[in-house]
Amino acid sequence: MKLAILSRNTKLYSTQRLVAAARERGHTVRVLDPLRCYMKIAPGSFHLNYKGKPLTGIQAVIPRIGASVTRYGTAVLRQFELMGAYTPNSSDAILRARDKLRCHQLLAGQGIGLPATVFGDNPDDTDDLLRLLGKPPHVIKLIEGSQGNGVVLAERLSASRSVIEAFRGLYANFLVQEFIGEAGGADIRCFVVGDQVVAAMHRQAEAGEFRSNLHRGGQASRVRLTAAEKSTALRAAKVMGLEVAGVDLLRSRSGPLVLEVNSSPGLEGIEGTTKVDVAGAIIDHVAARLPPVRKRTKRPVAKRKK
Ligand SMILES: Nc1ncnc2c1ncn2[C@@H]1O[C@H](COP(=O)(O)OP(=O)(O)OP(=O)(O)O)[C@@H](O)[C@H]1O
Ligand SMILES: [Mg+2]
Fold it and tell me: What is the mean pLDDT of residues 162-184?
């Protein structure tokens, strides 16, 4: 197949692994910086150019779109979709997953377990908002945060109020969750490809820390998932409409709870920890979803009568 990977940086581990896995399997692959793709939109006709040349014949696109370029990146991906290319994660699905409040609403709407979550806009409502959530400890999270930045554990109600006040003072968007203490500072990353969890790792926060992010010193190890964890991860990805997803779970007394569904999950941590060829699984999935290429058969040339 003729494949494009939308990525801002060819040197990233995930991008390099996808390129290598595609080439190993005999596919043609190009890495395109989404910010260098530009497009023409006209009734019923869609074009994409890249660094002065038209992009044609691309059958499949694997998007690796960072949060900072979500809008432009998904517009480029949508243009590819309109031109008939297949993508495991559509522009709509990526936008859905990037909107954390919407993601929580969609998952909860399908009965998928989540830590109880509240959010509100007006400072006058803070007390009632926290009452709605229940007793502390609470976890207050910046909506735009990542790698554990802006994720705060408040043990007392007064601390929750102060953190919320501080975030509001900075005009930051945040949500507040019940703290799942029994998760013991650990979460589980399930890597979903199609209808399988191809790899999973357990991430344990360092002592004295409740955030298990590897960037904050969390330790990753292999883990065996329960049937409930597998099916929760698969259902969460499906609800978001993502064929490739990193689903983060907390192990709670009431079963697996979804923390996040990531539409561009990194490959380095999961491949390093599990030794699974996740990049290969993604490429195989994409190739299997393409309509079979019809081999051109040579028509017998009619013999000319002498
Ligand atoms: N409600 C909670 N109860 C217990 N621990 C939590 C809770 N929410 C988050 N954590 C811990 O904090 C870590 C960071 O939180 P979270 O994953 O929500 O934010 P992030 O990693 O900064 O952002 P994102 O994963 O959305 O990019 C989680 O991996 C988990 O270990
Ligand atoms: Mg996280």
Answer: 96
Structure tokens at 59: 């059958």
Model confidence pTM above 0.90: yes
Ligand 1 midpoint to CA 126 (Å) = 22
Q: Is 147 in the pocket of ligand 1 (CB under 6 A)?
A: yes
Q: Residue 204 pairs with which residues in a beta bridge? A: 186, 219
**Which ligand lies nearest the alpha carbon of 211?**
1
| Rounded Cα distance, 133 and 124, in Å | 16
Measured CA distances, 207 to 22, 62, 212, 219 (Å): 40, 37, 10, 11
Q: What is the average per-residue pLDDT within 263-270?
A: 97
Side-by-side strand order, sheet with 174-178: 117-118, 174-178, 138-142, 151-154
CB atoms within 10 A of CB 290: 14
Of 117, 149, 153, 211, best ligand 1 pocket probe by most atoms within 8 Å of the beta carbon? 211
Expressed in angstroms and rounded, the spacing between residue 304 Cα and the centre of ligand 2 is: 71
Q: In this model, does residue 306 exceed pLDDT 60?
A: no
